[in-house]
Amino acid sequence: MISRTTRAARRTLARRAAILLVLLAGAAAAAVLAVRAVPADEDAVQIYNRGVRLFAEGTPGAAADQFERVAGDAPFGSDVSALARYNLATLQAQEGQMDPLTRARGLLEDVLRQRPMDQDARRNLEIVIGKMKMILQSSATSAEAAQRSLDAPSFAQQAKREPSTGGDSGAGGAAAADPSEY
Question: What's the pTM value of the predicted model, to 2 decimals?
Answer without folding.
Answer: 0.57
